[in-house]
Recover the amino acids of this structure.
């Protein structure tokens, strides 16, 4: 035992505090700035639930939301064209996020809730 | 969309993010049904994207669009309905005792270091580091994450002392380390692009702890610059929860991450007010200013006219931001030959007249660094994000120095007649 050392753990402690997408009025680059980065809590996250799924897409409206990463718009155009070719019974609406990929966009989410039945987000990465 | 708006979603991320997404599911407690095309999606041909959409998800082997439709229409399983976030346990203060050799291996294998040798943070060493501040060891300093959305880890004064010991710091450096910790800002935030940071110290503390603002200030020729810059990296790893692939996704990475261009400003030779004074702090205050962007864009040579000529064609600023680390010779020339007695006037001129890459004067910064060997300037695409005051972390009795503080050689002069020749 005499040649064994006792050292301190260097890793930080969990907080239950998480980063969150930016608020609509967050300043530019706030995503990189912890002083402006909105926070979420483990408690709030624990209440997240998945939505019930649709029985079918037939006659339904699917929003295709371009999150803004490179190539996403073009990829979703291909997805839209795939629906036209293979599932003409599904209406698609292709939308670009108007703010950055990191920013919340409640007006678009409400539009989708009111006018759509499902949403495809893409493409991360 | 799922939880707040009740709309079923089919998120899509490239296959490279499969593990990342799985971790996100576990930490956030919602089993989103992702589909993965091959990667990359950006900057590839339309034919390639067409093939991705018509092809299979490389993670599951299922046709990609079938998977998208299934994500929206297949009923939720019980497991999905009951899905819960995994809580991370609190960590013990001490590690299991082990031999020096095994502990060094443990730190490396756990990814708690930058890959270079560290000083093991024994209680005795950490205790000594704590003499570098009056603040209580258990005092909360801040929290950090290299990601934008994952759990922040918090740290106390003692945890910062652990990092300072690991980096090779002495107690005289500790107030700067604590100020860095108080920023809550990791030096290498996660992105598939590779972010870099720069840290610049201003005020009296620079000289008191032997930082280099002169010759070779951005090179590894100064103890304080080296260990302080490294400590910010080790903080980002251990407090920011930086784990390659899991939380850190910089595709190529950057060697700037090793030391974060840690330097002091050459206030003595600068013809301008120090950077922190220009940002509203008092000259007698000590601060650390933090910058972030992607990279060093150019390294140029020549006095002001040459510099202004070269940067006409500059491009690649991250959000239109540019920060220049310029030798005092260039700064003096900009003042004497071009009349810029305040660098902000130069920033305004650049934003207005130079080229559209310069977004606004507030995003163009000048730091004076260097030893007047040549009129050099280093152009970065860094933004200035934050300046933190160091004084609150300095002991009332002043910086705690060793009896004989460790200082590396000053630049050689012939003042003593030896001209640096070792006999």
């Amino acid at each position: 035992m005499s040649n064994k050392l006792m050292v301190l753990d260097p890793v930080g402690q969990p907080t239950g505090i998480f980063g969150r997408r930016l608020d609509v009025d967050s300043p530019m680059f706030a995503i990189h700035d912890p002083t402006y980065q909105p926070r979420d809590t483990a408690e709030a996250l624990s209440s997240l639930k998945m939505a019930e799924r649709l029985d079918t897409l037939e006659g339904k409206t699917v929003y295709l939301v371009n999150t803004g990463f490179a190539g996403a718009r073009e990829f979703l155009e291909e997805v839209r064209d795939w629906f036209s070719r293979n599932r003409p019974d599904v209406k698609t609406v292709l939308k670009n996020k108007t703010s950055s990929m990191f920013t919340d966009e409640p007006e678009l989410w409400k539009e989708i809730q009111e006018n759509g039945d499902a949403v495809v987000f893409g493409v991360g990465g | 969309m799922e939880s707040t708006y009740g709309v079923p979603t089919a998120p899509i991320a490239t296959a490279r993010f499969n593990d990342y997404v799985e971790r996100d599911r576990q930490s956030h407690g919602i089993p989103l049904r992702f589909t993965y095309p091959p990667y990359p999606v950006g900057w590839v041909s339309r034919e390639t994207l067409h093939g991705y959409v018509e092809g299979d998800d490389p993670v599951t082997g299922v046709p990609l669009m079938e998977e998208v439709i299934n994500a929206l229409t297949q009923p939720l399983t019980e497991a999905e309905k009951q899905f819960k976030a995994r809580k991370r346990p609190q960590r013990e203060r001490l590690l299991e005792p082990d031999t020096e050799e095994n502990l060094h291996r443990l730190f490396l294998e756990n990814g708690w270091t930058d890959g270079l040798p560290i000083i093991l943070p024994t209680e005795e060493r950490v205790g000594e580091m704590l003499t570098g501040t009056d603040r209580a060891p258990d005092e909360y300093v801040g929290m950090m994450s290299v990601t934008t959305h994952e759990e922040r880890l918090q740290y106390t004064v003692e945890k910062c002392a652990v990092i300072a010991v690991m980096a090779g710091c002495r107690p005289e450096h500790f107030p700067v380390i604590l100020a860095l910790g108080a920023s809550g800002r990791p030096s290498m935030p996660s992105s598939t692009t590779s972010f870099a940071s720069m840290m610049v110290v201003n005020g009296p503390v620079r000289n008191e702890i032997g930082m280099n603002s002169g010759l070779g200030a951005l090179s590894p020729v100064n103890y304080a610059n080296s260990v302080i810059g490294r400590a910010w990296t080790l903080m980002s790893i251990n407090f920011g929860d930086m784990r390659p692939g899991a939380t850190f996704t910089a595709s190529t990475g950057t060697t700037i991450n090793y030391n974060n261009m840690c330097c002091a400003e050459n206030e003595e030779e600068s013809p301008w007010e120090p950077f922190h004074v220009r940002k509203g702090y008092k000259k007698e205050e000590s601060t650390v200013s933090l910058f972030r962007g992607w990279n060093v864009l150019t390294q140029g040579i020549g006095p002001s006219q040459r510099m202004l000529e070269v940067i006409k064609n500059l491009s690649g600023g991250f959000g239109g931001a540019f920060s220049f680390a310029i030798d005092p010779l260039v700064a003096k020339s900009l003042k004497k030959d071009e009349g810029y007695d305040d660098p902000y006037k130069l920033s305004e001129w650049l934003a207005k007249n130079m080229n559209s890459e310069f977004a606004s004067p507030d995003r163009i910064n000048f730091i004076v660094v260097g030893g007047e060997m040549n009129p050099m300037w280093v152009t970065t695409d860094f933004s200035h994000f934050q300046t933190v005051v160091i004084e609150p972390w300095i002991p009332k009795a002043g910086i705690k120095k060793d009896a004989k503080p460790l200082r590396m050689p000053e630049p050689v002069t012939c003042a003593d007649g030896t001209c640096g020749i070792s006999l």
Notes: Chain B has a mean pLDDT of 93. Residues 19 and 184 of chain B are 26 Å apart (CA to CA). Residues 99-264+390-410 of chain B form one domain. Chain B is about 30% helix and 15% strand.
